[in-house]
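Title: [Solved] Glycerol dehydrogenase 3D structure

Original question kept below for reference.
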Amino acid sequence: MLKIFGAPSRYIQGSGALETLGQYAALFGRRAALVIDSYVHGVLGPRIEAVCAGHGVTLVPLIVEGDLTPEVIDGLRAQAAPAGIDMVIAVGGGKSLDAGKAVAKSSHCHLITVPTVASNDAPTSKNYVLYDAHHNLLAVEHMLFNPTIVLVDTAIIATAPVHFFRAGLGDAISKKFEAEQCQRNGGKNMYDAAPLLTAQLIADGCLRTLMADGADAVAVAGTGQPTPAFERVVEAMILMSGLGFESGGLSIAHALTRGLPKINGIATALHGLQVAVGLLVQLDLENRGDGMLADLQQWYAQVGLPTTLRELGAPGQPTDAELTLAADLSLKARNAANFDRTLDVSTLAEALRRHA
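Solution (posted by the thread starter after getting help):
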């Protein structure tokens, strides 16, 4: 099997980075689709329009609301098709960035992602997730290539509520362990290929950075005042985590996000918070003897991540039927096969019960 590593063409991070958006957009043309939700458009729209206009780039706003369903994507594509766009600029959280990816794919043009929260590593990834009308995950789609430019303004990221930042920590902390399982067991990464050593080393660096600086970064999240520790952790959560999962592969922690929402009270929990609990379940199943599970639980307490299904939102002890359904759906995810041994439903359900 061939090995493949993929990544954005350019990653730019720092306080005030948004001011460079116009100069980068101008590299690709003079007309851009701005994919953004109504709230972020109200807050940042005039500023984005001004920095782009300063470099001769005009914007065609495409407003995203609600879940990203095939119907929503069709509507956005229909708006973009006659607009004569040269590029897509996607601004906001995961849904807006995913919508931007879908529009860029159909328009065969460059994509610039501008995250306003650090709740996951979607800004660097070519993947985007579609849901059905009932909020169920429908499919994971892919652009042909990663975003051309990822622009991360940490002054904006630092204004987002700490709840989103914690979710980003939960999403990122798993990547070292999932990439490790994928590589060790002959799994495929998001490029449908074997992972290179590079991806594992990046995922290892992601873990070290989060463990060292995560608590200090959480302390300033929401203040609008990024510190050096905050900068390092944002880089780990968006860039290192993104490269680590996409080129390194995933395992049980992310597979569990297919099943956990079927447990009462958990469906509304942010993706990264579900992954955080999923990682503890994965490490439990690994039967590790290196003390890492205890170290992570201590770190979770420091940064405020959930360690149980109850802390994730379950109102009480999940029923056997809920745990069985969650385990069954999780094991149907492709990533569940990237593990040291083949798991059955009862084994995974029992592991979930231990973390109730």
